[in-house]
Amino acid sequence: MAKQAPSLTKKKLAAHCNAELSARGNLILDAAQKLFFQQGFDETSLAMIINEAGGSRRSIYHEFGNKQGLLLAVIQRQVNIQTQTLTAINKQLKPQEALNDVCYQFVKGMLSSNIQSLFRLVVQQAVKLPELGKIIYQCGPQAGVQPLADYLESLVNQKLLKIDDCHFAAQMLLEMSKGPLHTKALLMPMEVITDEVIKQQVSKAVGIFFNAHQV
Do 90 and 18 belong to one domain? Predict the structure, then answer.
């Protein structure tokens, strides 16, 4: 009888979002990301990942728990990249300029091929596995927006903006900034979206946001 992969509870799956990986774990993660993007999650087997990265099922189970844990780790790595973008707010700039700059960098990341491939993958799996979708949301958008929320809170404390809920406001600002360009990139992947077009959209979104929250 074939040995079954260990199952993960919701709590354990979420914990794998933030686990620190070994060198072997990073090789496995690179291989998993490549295959998930190329073949799809369901079509990628652990055997295919092992063939690409080396190691064994034991090493996958130890570091990621199972294939869902691997998907979460792939997601978390991209979330970390986007979170670092939001952390790197240039506080030497005037607030509106700083928001323009950080939102532009964020949208550039969201329109990258890696994030676009990941987004398609995640939506597909969230429909099939709603509980996994909840964990992805908690590990991703909910947590990743915090650096921007903290910056908005600092502007509120300086009485430069008036915002009741900085976390919600940060989410809304990012949603406005990526706006229709994100949908366009998903539905028309061969269409080139220039930096100038991104800057124009972000500038409009930040302007609306700033005007809405002026003291």
Answer: no
